[in-house]
UniProtKB/TrEMBL annotation:
This is alpha-1,2-Mannosidase. Its cofactor is Ca(2+). Keywords: Calcium, Disulfide bond, Glycosidase, Hydrolase, Membrane, Metal-binding, Signal-anchor, Transmembrane. It comes from Buteo japonicus. It catalyses: N(4)-(alpha-D-Man-(1->2)-alpha-D-Man-(1->2)-alpha-D-Man-(1->3)-[alpha-D-Man-(1->3)-[alpha-D-Man-(1->2)-alpha-D-Man-(1->6)]-alpha-D-Man-(1->6)]-beta-D-Man-(1->4)-beta-D-GlcNAc-(1->4)-beta-D-GlcNAc)-L-asparaginyl-[protein] (N-glucan mannose isomer 8A1,2,3B1,3) + 3 H2O = N(4)-(alpha-D-Man-(1->3)-[alpha-D-Man-(1->3)-[alpha-D-Man-(1->6)]-alpha-D-Man-(1->6)]-beta-D-Man-(1->4)-beta-D-GlcNAc-(1->4)-beta-D-GlcNAc)-L-asparaginyl-[protein] (N-glucan mannose isomer 5A1,2) + 3 beta-D-mannose; N(4)-(alpha-D-Man-(1->2)-alpha-D-Man-(1->2)-alpha-D-Man-(1->3)-[alpha-D-Man-(1->2)-alpha-D-Man-(1->3)-[alpha-D-Man-(1->2)-alpha-D-Man-(1->6)]-alpha-D-Man-(1->6)]-beta-D-Man-(1->4)-beta-D-GlcNAc-(1->4)-beta-D-GlcNAc)-L-asparaginyl-[protein] (N-glucan mannose isomer 9A1,2,3B1,2,3) + 4 H2O = N(4)-(alpha-D-Man-(1->3)-[alpha-D-Man-(1->3)-[alpha-D-Man-(1->6)]-alpha-D-Man-(1->6)]-beta-D-Man-(1->4)-beta-D-GlcNAc-(1->4)-beta-D-GlcNAc)-L-asparaginyl-[protein] (N-glucan mannose isomer 5A1,2) + 4 beta-D-mannose. Its EC number is 3.2.1.-. It comes from the Eukaryota. Belongs to the glycosyl hydrolase 47 family.
Amino acid sequence: MELEEEFQEAKKWVEKSFDLNVNGEASLFEVNIRYIGGLLAAYYLTGEEVFKSKALELGEKLLPAFNTPTGIPRGVINLGSGMSWSWGWASAGSSILAEFGTLHLEFLHLSELSGNPVFAEKVMNIRKVLNRVEKPQGLYPNFLSPVTGNWVQHHVSIGGLGDSFYEYLIKSWLMSDKKDSEAKKMYDDALEAIEKHLVKKSAGGLTYIAEWRGGILDHKMGHLACFSGGMIALGAEHAGQERKQHYMDLATEITNTCHESYARSDTKLGPEAFRFDAGTEAMATRLSERYYILRPEVVESYMYMWRLTHDPKYRQWGWEVVKALEKHCRVEAGFSGIRDVYTTTPTHDNMQQSFFLAETLKYLYLLFCEDDVLSLDDWVFNTEAHPLPVNHTNFKASVQ
Ligand code: DMJ
Protein backbone atom coordinates (compact mmCIF):
# COMPACT_ATOMS: atom_id res chain seq x y z
CA MET A 1 0.00 0.00 0.00
CA GLU A 2 3.11 2.15 -0.22
CA LEU A 3 3.05 2.89 3.51
CA GLU A 4 6.85 2.90 3.57
CA GLU A 5 7.36 5.01 6.66
CA GLU A 6 4.87 3.07 8.72
CA PHE A 7 6.54 -0.14 7.61
CA GLN A 8 9.99 1.05 8.74
CA GLU A 9 8.57 2.08 12.06
CA ALA A 10 6.90 -1.30 12.55
CA LYS A 11 10.06 -3.13 11.53
CA LYS A 12 12.06 -1.22 14.09
CA TRP A 13 9.52 -2.16 16.74
CA VAL A 14 9.76 -5.85 15.82
CA GLU A 15 13.58 -5.64 15.98
CA LYS A 16 13.87 -3.74 19.23
CA SER A 17 10.73 -4.16 21.28
CA PHE A 18 8.95 -7.39 20.37
CA ASP A 19 9.33 -9.34 23.60
CA LEU A 20 8.98 -13.08 23.12
CA ASN A 21 9.51 -14.05 26.74
CA VAL A 22 6.35 -12.64 28.21
CA ASN A 23 5.57 -14.35 31.44
CA GLY A 24 1.80 -14.59 31.00
CA GLU A 25 -1.05 -16.38 29.33
CA ALA A 26 -1.00 -16.51 25.53
CA SER A 27 -3.30 -18.32 23.14
CA LEU A 28 -1.37 -20.78 20.97
CA PHE A 29 -3.87 -20.18 18.16
CA GLU A 30 -3.81 -16.38 18.31
CA VAL A 31 -0.02 -16.23 18.57
CA ASN A 32 0.18 -18.44 15.53
CA ILE A 33 -2.38 -16.74 13.28
CA ARG A 34 -1.65 -13.14 14.27
CA TYR A 35 2.07 -13.07 15.13
CA ILE A 36 3.66 -15.98 13.30
CA GLY A 37 1.35 -15.47 10.31
CA GLY A 38 2.10 -11.74 10.29
CA LEU A 39 5.85 -12.23 10.62
CA LEU A 40 5.95 -14.88 7.89
CA ALA A 41 3.94 -12.70 5.51
CA ALA A 42 6.17 -9.71 6.25
CA TYR A 43 9.21 -11.88 5.50
CA TYR A 44 7.83 -13.21 2.23
CA LEU A 45 6.75 -9.76 1.07
CA THR A 46 10.02 -7.98 1.94
CA GLY A 47 12.76 -10.61 2.33
CA GLU A 48 13.87 -8.90 5.57
CA GLU A 49 15.61 -11.52 7.75
CA VAL A 50 14.38 -10.09 11.04
CA PHE A 51 10.82 -11.27 10.34
CA LYS A 52 11.97 -14.77 9.54
CA SER A 53 14.12 -15.11 12.64
CA LYS A 54 11.40 -13.77 14.94
CA ALA A 55 8.84 -16.12 13.39
CA LEU A 56 11.14 -19.11 13.95
CA GLU A 57 11.99 -18.04 17.49
CA LEU A 58 8.32 -17.70 18.31
CA GLY A 59 7.51 -21.02 16.63
CA GLU A 60 10.03 -22.78 18.90
CA LYS A 61 8.34 -21.25 21.91
CA LEU A 62 5.02 -22.82 20.98
CA LEU A 63 6.35 -26.37 20.77
CA PRO A 64 5.95 -27.32 24.47
CA ALA A 65 2.15 -27.01 24.07
CA PHE A 66 2.28 -30.17 21.94
CA ASN A 67 3.66 -32.31 24.78
CA THR A 68 0.40 -34.17 25.43
CA PRO A 69 -0.37 -37.91 25.20
CA THR A 70 -1.86 -37.47 21.70
CA GLY A 71 0.25 -34.56 20.46
CA ILE A 72 -2.91 -32.45 20.17
CA PRO A 73 -1.71 -29.15 21.65
CA ARG A 74 -3.31 -27.43 24.61
CA GLY A 75 -4.83 -24.01 23.98
CA VAL A 76 -2.90 -21.76 26.35
CA ILE A 77 0.84 -21.34 26.78
CA ASN A 78 3.17 -19.28 28.92
CA LEU A 79 5.86 -18.14 26.47
CA GLY A 80 8.27 -17.45 29.32
CA SER A 81 8.08 -20.77 31.16
CA GLY A 82 6.82 -23.04 28.36
CA MET A 83 4.00 -24.30 30.59
CA SER A 84 0.73 -25.01 28.81
CA TRP A 85 -2.81 -25.77 29.84
CA SER A 86 -6.38 -25.92 28.48
CA TRP A 87 -8.83 -23.05 28.47
CA GLY A 88 -10.87 -22.98 31.69
CA TRP A 89 -14.07 -22.58 29.69
CA ALA A 90 -13.47 -25.54 27.34
CA SER A 91 -15.30 -28.60 28.57
CA ALA A 92 -13.26 -31.21 30.46
CA GLY A 93 -9.81 -29.94 29.56
CA SER A 94 -10.46 -30.22 25.86
CA SER A 95 -8.69 -28.53 22.96
CA ILE A 96 -10.65 -26.58 20.34
CA LEU A 97 -10.96 -27.75 16.73
CA ALA A 98 -10.56 -24.24 15.26
CA GLU A 99 -7.45 -23.72 17.40
CA PHE A 100 -5.39 -26.88 16.92
CA GLY A 101 -6.78 -27.15 13.38
CA THR A 102 -5.46 -23.71 12.39
CA LEU A 103 -1.71 -24.20 12.57
CA HIS A 104 -1.00 -26.13 9.40
CA LEU A 105 -0.15 -23.35 6.95
CA GLU A 106 2.19 -21.45 9.23
CA PHE A 107 3.89 -24.55 10.63
CA LEU A 108 4.72 -25.87 7.16
CA HIS A 109 6.38 -22.57 6.38
CA LEU A 110 8.33 -22.68 9.65
CA SER A 111 9.74 -26.07 8.62
CA GLU A 112 10.41 -24.85 5.11
CA LEU A 113 12.31 -21.78 6.32
CA SER A 114 14.24 -23.43 9.13
CA GLY A 115 14.94 -26.79 7.51
CA ASN A 116 13.70 -28.28 10.78
CA PRO A 117 10.91 -30.83 10.17
CA VAL A 118 9.59 -30.64 13.74
CA PHE A 119 6.91 -28.05 12.92
CA ALA A 120 5.54 -30.01 9.97
CA GLU A 121 5.61 -33.20 12.04
CA LYS A 122 3.49 -31.61 14.76
CA VAL A 123 0.72 -30.57 12.39
CA MET A 124 0.83 -33.79 10.37
CA ASN A 125 0.30 -35.65 13.63
CA ILE A 126 -2.79 -33.53 14.39
CA ARG A 127 -4.15 -34.58 11.04
CA LYS A 128 -3.42 -38.22 11.83
CA VAL A 129 -5.35 -38.04 15.10
CA LEU A 130 -8.29 -36.40 13.34
CA ASN A 131 -8.31 -39.03 10.62
CA ARG A 132 -8.31 -41.81 13.18
CA VAL A 133 -11.19 -40.61 15.37
CA GLU A 134 -14.74 -41.50 14.35
CA LYS A 135 -16.77 -38.57 13.06
CA PRO A 136 -20.49 -38.46 13.96
CA GLN A 137 -22.33 -38.34 10.60
CA GLY A 138 -19.01 -37.33 9.04
CA LEU A 139 -19.00 -34.10 11.10
CA TYR A 140 -16.13 -32.74 13.22
CA PRO A 141 -17.20 -31.71 16.73
CA ASN A 142 -15.50 -28.66 18.24
CA PHE A 143 -13.97 -30.16 21.40
CA LEU A 144 -11.35 -32.91 21.49
CA SER A 145 -9.44 -34.31 24.45
CA PRO A 146 -5.66 -33.90 24.06
CA VAL A 147 -5.31 -36.84 26.44
CA THR A 148 -7.54 -39.50 24.86
CA GLY A 149 -7.92 -38.12 21.34
CA ASN A 150 -11.72 -38.49 21.60
CA TRP A 151 -14.42 -35.88 21.13
CA VAL A 152 -15.59 -34.35 24.36
CA GLN A 153 -18.89 -32.81 23.25
CA HIS A 154 -20.94 -33.08 20.08
CA HIS A 155 -21.20 -29.40 19.15
CA VAL A 156 -20.48 -28.75 15.48
CA SER A 157 -20.15 -25.30 13.98
CA ILE A 158 -18.74 -23.70 10.88
CA GLY A 159 -18.69 -20.48 12.94
CA GLY A 160 -16.78 -19.95 16.19
CA LEU A 161 -14.78 -22.93 17.54
CA GLY A 162 -14.85 -24.79 14.21
CA ASP A 163 -14.46 -22.24 11.39
CA SER A 164 -10.82 -21.99 10.37
CA PHE A 165 -10.19 -25.74 10.68
CA TYR A 166 -12.20 -26.18 7.45
CA GLU A 167 -10.53 -23.15 5.90
CA TYR A 168 -7.06 -24.61 6.54
CA LEU A 169 -7.94 -27.92 4.86
CA ILE A 170 -8.69 -26.35 1.48
CA LYS A 171 -5.90 -23.80 1.86
CA SER A 172 -3.36 -26.51 2.77
CA TRP A 173 -4.18 -28.16 -0.51
CA LEU A 174 -3.91 -24.89 -2.43
CA MET A 175 -0.69 -23.87 -0.70
CA SER A 176 0.88 -27.24 -1.60
CA ASP A 177 0.20 -26.39 -5.25
CA LYS A 178 -2.60 -28.96 -5.15
CA LYS A 179 -0.37 -31.83 -4.09
CA ASP A 180 -1.72 -32.37 -0.58
CA SER A 181 -4.59 -34.58 -1.71
CA GLU A 182 -5.27 -35.79 1.83
CA ALA A 183 -6.24 -32.26 2.88
CA LYS A 184 -8.45 -31.90 -0.19
CA LYS A 185 -10.27 -35.13 0.58
CA MET A 186 -10.79 -34.13 4.22
CA TYR A 187 -12.20 -30.80 3.02
CA ASP A 188 -14.49 -32.39 0.43
CA ASP A 189 -15.83 -34.96 2.90
CA ALA A 190 -16.33 -32.37 5.65
CA LEU A 191 -18.17 -30.00 3.31
CA GLU A 192 -20.39 -32.81 2.07
CA ALA A 193 -21.39 -33.66 5.67
CA ILE A 194 -21.94 -29.98 6.50
CA GLU A 195 -24.16 -29.55 3.49
CA LYS A 196 -26.15 -32.67 4.29
CA HIS A 197 -26.73 -31.92 7.97
CA LEU A 198 -26.27 -28.19 8.57
CA VAL A 199 -27.20 -26.21 5.46
CA LYS A 200 -30.83 -25.03 5.53
CA LYS A 201 -33.10 -22.64 3.68
CA SER A 202 -35.33 -20.22 5.56
CA ALA A 203 -39.03 -19.65 4.79
CA GLY A 204 -37.97 -16.43 3.08
CA GLY A 205 -35.52 -18.30 0.85
CA LEU A 206 -32.23 -17.47 2.59
CA THR A 207 -29.62 -20.24 2.72
CA TYR A 208 -27.77 -20.51 6.02
CA ILE A 209 -25.53 -22.90 7.94
CA ALA A 210 -27.00 -23.93 11.28
CA GLU A 211 -25.10 -25.24 14.30
CA TRP A 212 -25.50 -28.86 15.50
CA ARG A 213 -25.71 -29.94 19.11
CA GLY A 214 -25.74 -33.70 19.42
CA GLY A 215 -28.05 -34.00 16.43
CA ILE A 216 -30.28 -31.03 17.27
CA LEU A 217 -30.03 -27.95 15.07
CA ASP A 218 -29.64 -24.44 16.41
CA HIS A 219 -30.88 -22.18 13.60
CA LYS A 220 -28.31 -19.51 14.19
CA MET A 221 -25.40 -18.25 12.13
CA GLY A 222 -22.54 -16.37 13.74
CA HIS A 223 -20.82 -13.49 11.95
CA LEU A 224 -17.73 -15.73 12.08
CA ALA A 225 -19.50 -18.32 9.90
CA CYS A 226 -19.79 -15.77 7.09
CA PHE A 227 -16.21 -16.49 5.97
CA SER A 228 -17.64 -19.72 4.53
CA GLY A 229 -19.07 -18.06 1.40
CA GLY A 230 -15.54 -17.19 0.33
CA MET A 231 -14.12 -20.55 1.35
CA ILE A 232 -16.75 -22.53 -0.51
CA ALA A 233 -16.23 -20.37 -3.62
CA LEU A 234 -12.47 -20.92 -3.42
CA GLY A 235 -13.02 -24.68 -3.15
CA ALA A 236 -15.63 -24.66 -5.93
CA GLU A 237 -13.05 -23.35 -8.37
CA HIS A 238 -11.26 -26.65 -8.00
CA ALA A 239 -14.18 -29.06 -7.62
CA GLY A 240 -15.00 -31.51 -10.37
CA GLN A 241 -17.02 -30.11 -13.26
CA GLU A 242 -20.43 -31.19 -11.98
CA ARG A 243 -19.83 -30.00 -8.38
CA LYS A 244 -18.30 -26.67 -9.38
CA GLN A 245 -21.53 -24.86 -10.25
CA HIS A 246 -23.29 -26.41 -7.29
CA TYR A 247 -20.72 -25.10 -4.81
CA MET A 248 -20.53 -21.73 -6.55
CA ASP A 249 -24.32 -21.44 -6.10
CA LEU A 250 -24.03 -22.40 -2.44
CA ALA A 251 -21.26 -19.81 -1.89
CA THR A 252 -23.36 -17.14 -3.65
CA GLU A 253 -26.40 -17.92 -1.50
CA ILE A 254 -24.49 -17.89 1.78
CA THR A 255 -22.75 -14.62 0.91
CA ASN A 256 -26.13 -13.18 0.01
CA THR A 257 -27.53 -14.24 3.41
CA CYS A 258 -24.60 -12.59 5.17
CA HIS A 259 -25.19 -9.43 3.16
CA GLU A 260 -28.84 -9.57 4.28
CA SER A 261 -27.69 -9.62 7.91
CA TYR A 262 -26.01 -6.27 7.20
CA ALA A 263 -28.76 -4.83 4.99
CA ARG A 264 -31.46 -5.51 7.62
CA SER A 265 -29.72 -3.45 10.30
CA ASP A 266 -30.01 0.31 10.82
CA THR A 267 -26.26 0.83 10.68
CA LYS A 268 -25.77 -1.45 7.62
CA LEU A 269 -23.28 -3.43 9.68
CA GLY A 270 -24.03 -6.97 10.76
CA PRO A 271 -24.63 -8.39 14.25
CA GLU A 272 -22.41 -10.93 16.01
CA ALA A 273 -25.03 -13.64 15.39
CA PHE A 274 -28.31 -13.82 13.52
CA ARG A 275 -31.13 -16.31 13.64
CA PHE A 276 -33.70 -18.07 11.57
CA ASP A 277 -36.44 -19.00 14.00
CA ALA A 278 -39.76 -17.77 15.33
CA GLY A 279 -40.37 -15.67 12.23
CA THR A 280 -36.93 -14.06 12.34
CA GLU A 281 -34.71 -14.03 9.27
CA ALA A 282 -31.04 -12.98 9.34
CA MET A 283 -31.42 -10.72 12.38
CA ALA A 284 -30.19 -10.97 15.95
CA THR A 285 -32.92 -11.83 18.41
CA ARG A 286 -30.91 -11.52 21.61
CA LEU A 287 -29.61 -8.27 23.02
CA SER A 288 -26.27 -9.93 23.66
CA GLU A 289 -25.79 -10.68 19.93
CA ARG A 290 -26.43 -7.22 18.50
CA TYR A 291 -22.85 -5.93 18.61
CA TYR A 292 -20.30 -5.53 15.79
CA ILE A 293 -16.60 -5.60 16.66
CA LEU A 294 -15.15 -4.69 13.22
CA ARG A 295 -15.09 -8.32 12.13
CA PRO A 296 -13.90 -9.16 8.59
CA GLU A 297 -15.77 -12.34 7.57
CA VAL A 298 -18.48 -10.73 5.44
CA VAL A 299 -16.10 -8.53 3.42
CA GLU A 300 -13.73 -11.49 3.21
CA SER A 301 -16.42 -13.40 1.33
CA TYR A 302 -17.17 -10.34 -0.85
CA MET A 303 -13.48 -10.23 -1.82
CA TYR A 304 -13.35 -13.90 -2.84
CA MET A 305 -16.71 -13.72 -4.62
CA TRP A 306 -15.55 -10.63 -6.52
CA ARG A 307 -12.27 -12.20 -7.57
CA LEU A 308 -13.96 -15.42 -8.65
CA THR A 309 -17.07 -14.02 -10.40
CA HIS A 310 -16.45 -10.30 -11.08
CA ASP A 311 -20.09 -9.67 -10.31
CA PRO A 312 -20.11 -5.89 -9.51
CA LYS A 313 -22.59 -6.35 -6.68
CA TYR A 314 -19.75 -7.50 -4.42
CA ARG A 315 -17.95 -4.19 -4.86
CA GLN A 316 -21.22 -2.34 -4.21
CA TRP A 317 -21.76 -4.35 -1.05
CA GLY A 318 -18.17 -3.71 0.03
CA TRP A 319 -18.63 0.01 -0.53
CA GLU A 320 -21.77 -0.05 1.67
CA VAL A 321 -19.53 -1.44 4.43
CA VAL A 322 -16.89 1.24 3.89
CA LYS A 323 -19.55 3.94 4.25
CA ALA A 324 -21.08 2.33 7.33
CA LEU A 325 -17.66 2.00 8.99
CA GLU A 326 -16.95 5.67 8.32
CA LYS A 327 -20.31 6.68 9.65
CA HIS A 328 -20.64 4.56 12.76
CA CYS A 329 -17.21 3.25 13.74
CA ARG A 330 -14.75 6.03 13.00
CA VAL A 331 -13.56 7.78 16.15
CA GLU A 332 -10.81 10.26 16.87
CA ALA A 333 -8.07 7.70 17.39
CA GLY A 334 -9.09 5.13 14.78
CA PHE A 335 -12.11 2.86 14.50
CA SER A 336 -14.20 1.31 17.23
CA GLY A 337 -16.65 -1.57 17.53
CA ILE A 338 -20.27 -0.71 18.28
CA ARG A 339 -22.64 -2.21 20.82
CA ASP A 340 -25.83 -2.38 18.77
CA VAL A 341 -26.15 -2.49 14.99
CA TYR A 342 -29.90 -1.88 15.17
CA THR A 343 -29.75 1.76 16.19
CA THR A 344 -28.61 4.71 14.12
CA THR A 345 -26.87 6.19 17.17
CA PRO A 346 -24.79 3.26 18.41
CA THR A 347 -22.40 3.54 21.33
CA HIS A 348 -18.75 2.58 20.84
CA ASP A 349 -17.02 -0.22 22.70
CA ASN A 350 -13.69 1.67 22.70
CA MET A 351 -11.80 -1.18 21.05
CA GLN A 352 -10.05 -1.51 17.70
CA GLN A 353 -9.35 -5.21 17.27
CA SER A 354 -6.09 -6.02 15.44
CA PHE A 355 -8.03 -8.02 12.83
CA PHE A 356 -9.59 -4.76 11.66
CA LEU A 357 -6.28 -3.72 10.11
CA ALA A 358 -5.02 -7.22 9.29
CA GLU A 359 -8.24 -8.46 7.73
CA THR A 360 -11.22 -6.11 7.37
CA LEU A 361 -9.34 -3.23 5.76
CA LYS A 362 -7.04 -5.55 3.80
CA TYR A 363 -9.95 -7.46 2.27
CA LEU A 364 -11.71 -4.19 1.44
CA TYR A 365 -8.52 -2.91 -0.20
CA LEU A 366 -8.16 -6.12 -2.21
CA LEU A 367 -11.82 -5.96 -3.24
CA PHE A 368 -11.08 -2.72 -5.09
CA CYS A 369 -7.64 -3.74 -6.47
CA GLU A 370 -6.70 -5.46 -9.68
CA ASP A 371 -6.71 -9.26 -9.41
CA ASP A 372 -2.93 -9.47 -9.70
CA VAL A 373 -2.38 -7.72 -6.36
CA LEU A 374 -1.71 -10.79 -4.18
CA SER A 375 -3.17 -13.05 -6.84
CA LEU A 376 -5.14 -16.03 -5.58
CA ASP A 377 -3.02 -18.21 -7.89
CA ASP A 378 0.17 -17.41 -6.01
CA TRP A 379 -0.89 -16.65 -2.44
CA VAL A 380 -3.11 -18.12 0.23
CA PHE A 381 -4.31 -15.90 3.04
CA ASN A 382 -3.94 -17.37 6.48
CA THR A 383 -7.02 -17.01 8.66
CA GLU A 384 -5.85 -13.57 9.79
CA ALA A 385 -5.44 -12.50 6.12
CA HIS A 386 -1.64 -12.68 6.19
CA PRO A 387 -0.52 -13.79 2.71
CA LEU A 388 1.65 -16.90 2.42
CA PRO A 389 3.10 -18.01 -0.92
CA VAL A 390 1.86 -21.05 -2.79
CA ASN A 391 4.60 -23.60 -3.10
CA HIS A 392 4.95 -23.71 -6.86
CA THR A 393 8.32 -25.38 -6.63
CA ASN A 394 8.65 -27.96 -3.90
CA PHE A 395 8.20 -28.02 -0.15
CA LYS A 396 10.74 -30.40 1.27
CA ALA A 397 9.25 -30.91 4.68
CA SER A 398 5.59 -30.64 3.87
CA VAL A 399 3.26 -33.16 2.46
CA GLN A 400 4.53 -36.64 3.08
C1 DMJ B 1 -9.90 -13.58 13.21
O1 DMJ B 1 -9.00 -13.52 14.24
C2 DMJ B 1 -9.67 -14.81 12.39
O2 DMJ B 1 -10.28 -14.67 11.16
C3 DMJ B 1 -10.15 -16.05 13.06
O3 DMJ B 1 -10.06 -17.20 12.25
C4 DMJ B 1 -11.58 -15.91 13.54
N1 DMJ B 1 -12.09 -14.60 13.38
C5 DMJ B 1 -11.30 -13.49 13.77
C6 DMJ B 1 -11.94 -12.18 13.39
O4 DMJ B 1 -13.30 -12.18 13.45
